[in-house]
Design goal:
Cadherin-domain_protein, about 45% strand, four-stranded mixed sheet, 6 domains, six-stranded mixed sheet, Cadherin_CS, mainly beta, Immunoglobulin-like, Cadherin-like_dom
Length: about 675
């Protein structure tokens, strides 16, 4: 177990006690003290082996064992003993109340050789006896007094100490023997006072014997011899300052300006009251000069409040006595401000940005300037001086906060700068800062403000509609048109990408970056002569991109890429033998899907013929000579040619015979066989 102890005042013991409890197998009962605490007293002059008191422990019923006693703690110096058989406590050494006024012993009782025991506390008060006389710190002393000191002046304090307590230590003072009635003493305090004025010319030395007596029985006494010397005037008064410990001076005063008049008084006479003045500390930079006789303090150099606004000078006033007495004063000199500092902006160039299209009142920036002056001289006001674009902003004159006064449009006005015009998008506004001094001092700074872009513009094509004509023989991948769209926004908001919508039938594609439209397959006017679709220009904004569409019409111009085709081939004509000359006996017809001259067909006979003639435009075959027999037959090869730059021609067979003559036409083979590889290209032979 760990046991802690507290006294009645709540203070704990310096250390704890460790208690070990052994648990025995059989129940053993100790001898129990009649009381848990005993209190005795003994005078400190009791001789050795004096009886202090007796403690008693009772053995258990029917016990035949003898009780023994011992002191187990509280007597480290062995000043006490206890009779082990009867419990009588004796003094063993000389006691001293002044060294130890209270002793607390712990006494244990043991029953025979039993391992268990009980304990009790014994409090012994060592009572004081008057065995110490009062003691002065010195046996004699000397005092100098002045003839100017009035009656009632305290000229000495006698002090003695007595180690005893109570009345034995209470001291009374008295004058045991005196040569004059000029002195009295306070019996309780020991203060020696003058009862009248002493004159040096009558008696220069007085001897007093001061007695210090305690209140014991019998009382003990000590004596102090004190000699007093009178002088006409002694330097017994220190100087004292009467001038103010604080002074004020403007920072712009000239060198030699009177700052303060230092004044001290000394009631002593003659040289004892003559004073000189000196600066002990605080004037390390030698800003001031002090006249040691007059006490006039003047400036020795120009002052600057912004460098040092307060000086603390330790000034000493020293009399001319021996030894000299002095007094010190801390003189505070406050340097007052004049408006000699110009406000300085923390930056000469401020740069910031603000979003366009925001409501008026949008915070832009806070500019700040500092002024080393104080008071009104350091209070600052801000404003924007008139200039291009200045009306779009508003300045808080006290805080320096700049806000918008109108909604800004980056595309109209991109940059405002606060100093001089740079280009059409840059403006100069001058921010002025002035203090409230008189006269006021000002400075300016430049603000470079960029209006940040918002995606408020859609891309715009150069035209509202695009039309273009291309020939049908363009190769795949040919560029036919370059679209261009512009976006007044900046960054991704102004970066344009292109795409196509609506059906292009797989014939066209657009480069998403350049806007170039290219063919993606071969064109054929005869299949589709015109394409109409829309191109889209989209910006690259990551939030709500904007786009514009434009119509694109592509006309396919014809090239001579088709042969004439006869509507019938071969043509069989049955002609009566009596057919008249100049009569049309047959008409060949052909078509060409090309346009214009590329599709205009003219007919001709491949071989010169006198019997028949063909009309080049209509294809009519006309009989020019009479038939020479009734079984007439012939074969005419007719060509159909278009009028293209590189004409294309087709041929047809016209078989003419009389009704009596019939030509048999037959295949040369009754079965034709051929093989074709898979994946063969169209038109392959």
């Amino acid at each position: 177990l760990t046991v802690s102890a507290w006294d009645g005042g709540g203070l704990p013991s310096a250390s704890n006690a460790a208690i070990t409890v052994n648990i025995l197998q059989t129940v053993l009962v100790p001898a129990i003290f009649e009381r848990s605490r005993y209190s005795f007293s003994v005078p400190e002059d009791a001789p050795e082996d004096s009886v202090i008191g007796t403690v008693k422990a009772r053995e258990p019923p029917n016990s035949l064992e003898v009780v023994s006693y011992r002191i187990c703690s509280g007597d480290p110096h062995g000043k006490f003993s206890i009779d082990p058989q009867f419990g009588i406590i004796h003094t063993k050494k000389q006691l001293d109340h002044e060294t130890q006024p209270v002793v607390v012993l712990t006494v244990q009782s043991q029953l025979g050789n039993s391992p268990v025991y009980s304990s009790t506390q014994v409090n012994i008060s060592v009572t004081d006896i008057n065995d110490n006389a009062p003691v002065f710190p010195t046996k004699s002393d000397k005092v100098t007094i002045s003839h100017t000191q009035p009656p009632g002046t305290a000229v000495y304090i006698a002090h003695a100490e007595d180690k005893d307590s109570g009345l034995n230590g209470a001291i009374k003072y008295s004058i045991a023997s005196k040569e004059s009635d000029a002195f009295s003493i306070d019996p309780s305090l020991g203060v020696v006072n003058l009862t009248r004025t002493v004159f040096a010319e009558k008696q220069q030395e007085y001897t007093l014997h001061i007695a210090a007596e305690d209140c014991g029985s019998p009382p003990l006494t000590s004596l102090l011899m004190c000699k007093y010397f009178t002088v006409a005037d002694i330097n017994d008064n220190s100087p004292s300052f009467v001038s103010s410990p604080i002074s004020y001076v403007m920072e712009d005063v000239d060198v030699g300006f009177l700052v303060h008049h230092i004044i001290a008084k000394d009631p002593d006479e003659g040289r004892n009251g003559q004073l000189t003045y000196h600066i002990l500390s605080g004037n390390e930079n030698k800003a001031f000069v002090l006249d040691k006789i007059t006490g006039l303090l003047t400036t020795a150099q120009f002052l600057d409040r912004e460098v040092q606004e307060r000086y603390s000078l330790t000034v000493i006033a020293l009399d001319d006595g021996s030894p000299a007495l002095s007094a010190t004063q801390v003189l505070t000199i406050v340097v007052l401000d004049v408006n000699d500092e110009t406000p300085v902006f923390l930056k000469q160039l401020y740069e910031t940005a603000v979003h366009e299209n925001r409501d008026p009142g949008e915070f832009v920036i806070r500019v700040e300037a500092v002024d080393q002056d104080e008071g009104l001289n350091s209070l600052l006001q801000y404003e924007i001086l008139p200039g291009a674009g200045y009306e779009k902003f508003k300045m808080n004159s006290d805080s320096g906060e700049l806000v918008t006064a109108a909604s800004l449009d980056r595309e109209t006005q991109e940059v405002f700068s606060i100093k001089d015009r740079e280009d059409i998008s840059n403006f100069t506004l001058v921010i002025e800062c002035h203090d409230l001094g008189s006269p006021s001092r000002t400075s300016t700074a430049q603000l470079y403000l960029t209006v940040l872009d918002e995606n408020d513009h859609s891309p715009l094509f150069a035209k509202t509609q695009y039309q273009i004509s291309v020939t049908e023989d363009l190769e795949e991948g040919s560029a036919i048109l370059d679209l261009s769209a512009s976006d007044e926004d900046a960054g991704l908001n102004g970066e344009v990408m292109y795409s196509l919508i609506d059906g292009t039938y797989g014939a066209f594609a657009i480069d998403s970056v350049t806007g170039s439209i290219i063919t993606t397959k071969a064109l054929d006017r005869e299949t589709k002569s015109q394409y109409t679709f829309r191109a889209v220009a989209s910006d690259c904004s990551t939030h709500f991109p904007r786009s514009t569409t434009v119509s694109v019409v592509v006309h396919i111009d014809d090239v001579n890429d088709n042969d004439p085709i006869f509507l019938e081939n071969p043509i069989r004509v049955f002609l009566p033998a009596e057919t008249a000359v100049n009569e049309t006996v047959a008409t060949v017809r052909a078509e060409d899907v090309d346009l214009g001259s590329n599709g205009a067909i003219v007919f001709n006979l491949m071989m010169a013929e006198t019997v028949f003639q063909i009309d080049v435009k209509t294809g009519d075959i006309i009989l020019r000579e009479p038939l020479d027999s009734k079984d007439f037959s012939t074969q005419l090869v007719v060509t159909a040619s278009d009028q293209g730059i590189a004409p294309r021609t087709a041929t047809a067979m016209v078989i003419i015979f009389t009704e009596e003559q019939e030509e048999v036409i037959s295949f040369s083979h009754s079965l034709y066989e051929a093989s074709v590889p898979e994946n063969s290209a169209a038109g392959g032979h």
